[in-house]
Amino acid sequence: MVDNRSLYLGPRIKRLRRELGLTQQAMAEDLAISPSYVALLERNQRPLTAPLLLRLARTYKLDMEDLAAEEGEDYARRVAEVLRDPIFSDIDLPALEVADLATNFPGVSEALLRLHGAYLREQQALAEQRVPGAEEGADPVAEARRFVARERNHFPDLDARAEALAAEIAEAGGAQEFLRKRGLRVRFLPPEVMVDTIRRYDRHNEQLLIDDTLDAAGRAWQLAIHIAYTVMRSDIARIVRAETFASQTAATLVRRALAGYAAAAIVMPYDKFQRAAESRRYDIEALASLFGTSFEQTAHRLTTLGRPGREGVPFFFIRVDQAGNVSKRLDGAGFPFAAHGGSCPLWSVHSVFGRPGEVATQWLELPDGQRFFSIARRVTSGGGRWGRPQVHGAIALACAAEHAAKLVYAQGVDPRAAPATPIGVTCRLCHRAACPARAAPPIGREILPDDYRRAAEPFTLGES
């Protein structure tokens, strides 16, 4: 028997429509209702009945569990928690009014939640300023990175599913033909038609639109990302649902990371890639040519080879911009990344911006004596046509020194005898006194006055 219970899911429907790139008119046509009814649904002025919920799930191939959850109750609970903040203690806030706000004015509720979240983050930042070295707060980027690091950037279920898909794609004659057989047309269109997007799924007309200025590796990657987000949707969702994240943003970032992981596993299937990496001695450029991928995509994939019995060299990966901001960080080698601040300026990842196309190798030694071998190169994104700016970054892939002999880049070098650059995790955590590149004194060390003596280093440090 069909459950005719009514649900008010306005914000969720609106978010879904925007994620799908649909207008209210297009969604109305898909669901055989009027555009004005879609607008009423999104404003919670009409309920979403069970039959319409089923139609929505079938039309857009969605998971009923995701759609049918009680969002109004969740909003009411979250708003009630916010309103218990001591800042509101002198205001009479009856529970019925809170429930009415969450149910009838979800937009205002969301605005209140965002504002309070921003307020709490500012309070946390002020607290951390007063407590040097405090651990990270509820930072969604940090939370997503911690999740990936905890799994050592290896997700065997995604690898297994992607390998099977890669075989199906090869049998179909390529990703484009694979999608065509599933009823999806792929079109490569100029930027002025794409309107500031490089990939867009037009579900209404069942076509995938891709910027035609992308190079071959970029096109192949966008096809693989779409397959990951659609064909492997449930596989990714299962991993995300198994975790509890502090915010929706953190969950979204994890989902994005898993989709990128799945896309890499489709383009570079685990067994084939791991065998090639071993036989080519981890020559990133050679592997990129073999699999039709970019240098960065290939380096990224090398951090994921953690299958028991078929492990690759454990690497860590970092990407920085010219200002030193870290935009990607993956750890499969146990490198002690800094929670706050930039990395060491003596690391060659910061010096390759003026050496396009050149791979820079470097032996590194941390203050505790750990030694690593690093491969760094400049990478570029954007561009592809006149007027579109290029963005330059630098990536580094590194492993513990004992694994370096497996790499073509360190062939014939004794890692115990190779001269290493002394680096720190970050200036605030590095206690090397004789460092000419130091930007800040380490935590817990006093700076000596330089009235009568100015050392060659930026700071003269007292005893610990």
Automatic annotation (TrEMBL):
Annotated Gene3D superfamilies: lambda repressor-like DNA-binding domains
Keyword annotations of the record: DNA-binding, Transcription, Transcription regulation
A Pfam family: ScfRs
InterPro entries, sorted: Cro/C1-type_HTH, HTH_RamB, IrrE_HExxH, Lambda_DNA-bd_dom_sf, ScfR_C, TransReg_Diox_bact_type
All copies of domain HTH cro/C1-type, residue ranges: 13-67
Family statement: Belongs to the short-chain fatty acyl-CoA assimilation regulator (ScfR) family.
PANTHER family, A to Z: HTH-TYPE TRANSCRIPTIONAL REGULATOR (PTHR46797), HTH-TYPE TRANSCRIPTIONAL REGULATOR SUTR (PTHR46797:SF23)
Protein name listed in UniProt: Short-chain fatty acyl-CoA regulator family protein
Originating organism: Novosphingobium anseongense
